[in-house]
Amino acid sequence: MVQTDRTQDVRVRRSHSTARTCVGCRSRDDRSSLLRVVAVWNEQEHQLVAHPDPRRRLPGRGAWLHPTPECLELAVRRRAFARALRVKAPLDTSRVRAHVLEEQQAVVGGSQEPSEHATESG
Questions:
Q1: DSSP helix/strand/coil, 108
Q2: Tens of pLDDT along 35-88?
Q3: Do 81 and 93 contact (CB within 8 A), yes or no?
Q4: Whole-structure pTM value
Q5: Partners of residue 50 on adjacent β-strands
Q6: How far is the CA of 108 from the CAs of 4, 70, 80, 105, in angstroms?
Q7: Which pairs with CB-CB distance under 8 Å and at least 24 residues apart come from 10-18?
Q8: Is residue 47 situated within a structural domain?
Q9: Residue 29's domain is classified under what CATH number?
């Protein structure tokens, strides 16, 4: 009887299922290195808001983004969030921007550069 190595087959399937495409730069990466973003209705402002979902637990369709200011700017410029999340209305991306800048600041180690950009954008 011939034995097959099933662990290799499982590994191939698992790695394939966790690959996602960044809506900013359009490159594929493992979902653990991407930030999930969902559309949430904001009752107070009566508009859809792009909301970061770092735990990947919020309900609804998600868009994936490298948590870098460069990928965020590309996604905003291309209007990729609305297209990926399949919404017609424009999305407020200020929460995603704040999250990305906070994460960038934590990586840099407290550099003042990201906080300067946070006051410029809205």
A1: helix
A2: 999 999 999 988 999 999 999 999 999 999 999 999 999 999 999 999 999 999
A3: yes
A4: 0.73
A5: 39
A6: 47, 15, 27, 5
A7: none
A8: yes
A9: 3.30.1230.10
